[in-house]
Amino acid sequence: HAARERAFHLLYEAETKGVDPAVVLAELPAEPEPYTATLVAGVAAEGDSIDARLSRLATGWKVERMPALDRAVLRLGVYELGHQPDVPTGVVLSEAVELASQYSTDESAKFVNGVLAAAATELRPA
C-alpha cells in the first residue's frame, strides 16, 4: 500500500509540474522503494497507451478534463492491471478506490472503480 500511495503522489506531482513522471522520479533526493519506482517508471513509459485506454473506457470524459488526482489513480491502476500480473485484480481495484476516496472528490471512488473494472475486463479477461 505504501509503495502504491507514494507512486500516486509522485504521479500527481509530475502532473502538477507538467513534467514526465520519470523526471520526478530521477530528481528524488533518495531512491524510492523498488515497487514505487517500477510503478512510476511504468506509467511514464506507457503513458500514451494508458491515456488512450482511459479515453475509450471513461465514457463521456476526456482524460484531460478529469480531476488530476483521478487521472493519477487511474493511470496507476491501468498500468498495474496491464503490466503487473502478480498483483490480484481485486487488490488493484481496492487500492485505487481507497486512494480516490482518500484524496479526491466524493464521486471519484465510484468513477475510478467503474473505469478500472472496465479496464480489468479488457486487460485480464480470465
Give an overview in words.
- Helix content is 74%, strand content 0%.
- The model has no long low-confidence stretch (mean pLDDT 95).
- It is an all-alpha fold.
- α5 runs antiparallel to α6.
Break the fold down into its secondary structure elements and pairings.
Layout: H1 2-17, H2 21-26, H3 34-57, H4 68-83, H5 89-103, H6 108-123
Helix pairs in contact: 1-3, 1-4, 3-4, 4-5, 4-6, 5-6
Query: Which descriptor suits the 3D outline?
Result: globular
Count of helices?
A: 6
What's the gyration radius in Å? 13 Å
Helix content: over 70%
Largest sheet: none
Beta-strand percentage range = under 5%
The termini sit apart by 25 Å
Query: How confident is the prediction overall: mean pLDDT?
Result: 95
Helix/strand/pairing category:
mainly alpha
Based on DSSP secondary structure assignment, what is the total number of beta strands? 0
SSE string, helix = H, strand = E? HHHHHH
Low-confidence stretches: none
